[in-house]
Amino acid sequence: MVIEQAVFHIVEGQESAFEKKFYELSDIFRHADACEKFKLIRGIENKQQYILQIHWTSLEAHTDVFMKTEEFKHWFLAMKPFLAERISMQHFENTLV
């Protein structure tokens, strides 16, 4: 399993609209074969910062398959107007089980 952590910096004042649009389109993750679970969390000190954490079956399933789908392209284009900065993305794996 691979854990993706994507950090979103949202345009000030657009937080509610971003959350609404994200939740409207969140089925993209629910229906992705390689997605085991996901959650979106918001910063406390910085309300414009969000972290999307997704558990994928493998790195390849995420980067080589999911990110090349039309559904992902549609989702990204819908999120783009809310972004104040580029999305910062990293992948992690469990070290303790």
UniProtKB/TrEMBL annotation:
Looking at the record, the residues that make up the ABM domain are 2-92
Asked if the keyword Oxidoreductase belongs to this entry, the reply reads yes
Which Pfam family would be a valid example here? ABM
Q: Which UniProt keywords apply?
A: Monooxygenase, Oxidoreductase
Q: Which InterPro entries match?
A: ABM_dom, Dimeric_a/b-barrel
Q: One GO molecular-function annotation for this sequence?
A: monooxygenase activity
UniProt keyword annotation of Membrane present? no
The name under which this protein is listed is: Antibiotic biosynthesis monooxygenase
Provenance organism: Acinetobacter wuhouensis
